[in-house]
Structure formats: C-alpha cells, structure tokens
Write a structure and sequence with these properties.
Helix 1 packs parallel to helix 3. A hairpin with an 8-residue loop joins strand 9 and strand 10. The protein starts with 14 loop residues before the first strand and ends in a 5-residue tail after the last strand. It contains 7 helices and 11 strands. Strands 7-11-10-9-8 form a 5-stranded antiparallel beta sheet, covered by helices on one side. A 4-stranded antiparallel beta sheet has the order 1-2-6-5, covered by helices on one side. Strands 3-4 form a two-stranded antiparallel sheet. The protein is 29% helix and 28% strand. It folds into 2 domains: 135 residues, Alpha-Beta Complex (Ribosomal Protein L22, Chain A); 108 residues, 4'-phosphopantetheinyl transferase domain (Ribosomal Protein L22, Chain A, Alpha-Beta Complex). The protein is α+β, with helices and mostly antiparallel strands. It binds coenzyme A (COA).
Length: 269
C-alpha cells in the first residue's frame, strides 16, 4: 500500500482508488485507478472539473485541456485518466528525498500516435524513460507506469464485464472462440472479456491502438492458465512490427475487467 496521496484526494468522497492492477511479468509496474462516483457528490460540474484541471495540470497540459471537445463526459474521462496516470508515475518515482511529486511535476502529453507520454520536471527522479498507459470506462480510469529499461512499451485496458456475445463475435477469431468451447456461459464471458482486454492492452503497448495493427484479428490470444489470468498474445507479422508475442495479465474486480501488457525490448523477449 502506498502512502502517496492521489492527485484527486482533495475532492473528498468524489474520487477513490481501489482496483488492483495485474502485472504481467517481472518488469516493475505501478498501477493506479481513479474511480469517479458522481452519485455521491457533485464532483461532476464543469466548474469543478476546471478547478481540478487548474490544480493538477501544467501549462502544456492546460492547453490540451482547453482544446478538448466541449462534452463534459469526454472532459471528465480525459481528466480522470490524467489523474490516474500522474498517480501511477508519482507512485513509481518519489523524488530524491522520497517525497511524492506534485501532480503538476508529472507531465502527460499526447504522443504522435495518440498514446500518452510522461515526463517529470526533475530529471533526477526518472530520466526520459517513463512509460505510461491509460484506459477508461464510464466513471473508472486506470493507468500504469513503468521506468524499467527492459520495457519498450506498456499497455492497460479496462472493460465492463458483459454477458452478451457481441465482443466474442467482433473481437475473437474462430480458433479463439473454439478454445473456449466446453465452458459454461458465465465462465466463457469472463474469458472473452479478459482476452479482448488483453488485445487492447497489447495494442497500446505497441503504441498503435488496435485498428492500425489490422484490427482484433491481427492479434491471437492463447490462455496460459485455466482462469485466463495470464495470456500470451501473438502479433501477426507486419513490415513495421515483425512477428512477436507478449505476455498479458488480467484481473476481474466485480464487473470491471482489467488487462496489462508489456512490450519487452528486442533480445529481452
Ligand atoms: C487506442 C484504443 C485501443 C483505445 O481503446 P478505447 O477502448 O477506445 O479507449 P480506452 O479507454 O481503452 O483507451 C483510451 C486511451 O488510450 C490511449 N491511446 C490512444 N491511442 C493510443 C495509442 N496509439 N497507443 C497507446 N495508447 C493510446 C489514450 O491515452 C486514450 O485516452 P485519452 O485519449 O483520454 O488520453 C483504440 O485503438 C481501439 O482500438 N479501440 C477499439 C474500441 C472498439 O473497437 N470497441 C468495440 C467493442 S465492440
């Protein structure tokens, strides 16, 4: 358990962190979730979001904040994702005196391909190699951070558990679906959610997102245990990325499903 306060702590009752983020391999990951519960407090108004943005965002991030679409839902989602990412970095990299960095000292900007890029103002705490990944669903945002040089990319995804078969039909190949034959309906839905989440997490670890890779069929998921907690994800060969595989870890907390993945440096796979 970390003693580092979360970036949203000052909005008492409105933000909390409580999801365990699974870690796929021996690379050190720091994970953070920020859960927004608007039914408990009015932490949802445009004014409150603006106040929070002013408190936690640096100047370049403020410019991104101002450029976001007007939709309150999107602005809230973006901001809560930034809070989770800043918290994940702050958890990973206390400053030289062991003090938690201020959220504004952790800068999260959008990279060339849409993924988040993190830097900290004091280079002594982390140098340039800090990786972050963000995901959100409705009122939940999750993020992971990593400062391990063996990692080339990291990815996280979060999904709401669902029992219909839309994701299964859309996101899994025939052979992936066949690998689930014989499971009871609920167990099958659980595995589908984990496998889909793992594909999304790997696509983020690659820095592309899913569709530039060729969509869900460009990734093939194999379960490494009977629960689907550890998965191996193969990426179809392409001129840019080459053939490779990733290990992903998944967890389910109630109706929230999470996956993380790490892209190792070549030669370290
Ligand atoms: C990047 C991608 C994986 C995002 O997935 P998503 O489910 O739309 O959204 P998530 O909440 O999981 O992730 C969004 C975050 O991913 C990050 N992201 C965006 N592009 C990225 C990229 N190229 N690499 C790494 N991360 C990226 C961003 O931080 C973004 O949040 P932000 O814009 O608030 O900063 C997208 O490429 C994708 O494939 N979406 C598929 C969604 C889909 O088809 N759903 C249908 C289900 S039936």
């Amino acid at each position: 358990m970390s003693l580092i306060p979360t970036a949203g702590d000052h909005l008492q009752g409105s933000w909390s962190t409580h999801l365990d983020v699974p870690s796929p391999c021996d690379v050190e990951l720091s994970g953070r979730s920020v859960v927004h519960q608007p039914h408990r407090s009015p932490g949802d108004s445009v004014e409150q979001l603006d106040a929070l943005a002013e408190l936690v965002l640096g100047p370049a991030e403020q410019a991104d904040w101002l450029a976001l679409p007007a939709s309150t839902r999107r602005r809230r989602q973006w901001l809560v994702g930034r809070l989770a990412a800043k918290d994940a970095v702050r958890q990973l990299l206390p400053d030289a005196r062991g003090r938690a960095l201020h959220p504004r000292e952790v800068k999260i900007l959008k990279g060339r391909r849409g993924g988040p890029e993190a830097t900290v103002e004091d280079p002594s705490v982390g140098g340039p190699h800090i990786l972050v990944s963000i995901a959100h669903i409705d009122h939940v945002a999750v993020a992971i951070a990593c400062a391990d040089r063996r990692a080339q990319g990291i990815g996280i995804d979060v999904e709401r558990f669902r029992t219909d078969r839309v994701i299964e039909r859309f996101g899994l190949s025939e052979s992936e679906r066949r690998s689930l034959d014989g499971l009871a309906a609920r167990a099958r839905a659980d595995h589908v959610a984990r496998m889909w989440c793992a594909k999304e997490a790997v696509s983020k670890a690659l820095g592309t997102g899913l569709f530039p890779l060729g969509g869900p069929s460009a990734l093939t998921v194999e379960r490494l245990d009977e629960w689907g907690a550890r998965l191996r994800v193969h990426v179809a060969e392409s001129p840019e990325y080459g053939a490779r595989w990733f290990e992903a870890a998944t967890a389910r907390n109630g109706d929230v499903v999470l996956a993380t993945a790490v892209a190792r440096c070549r030669g370290d796979e």
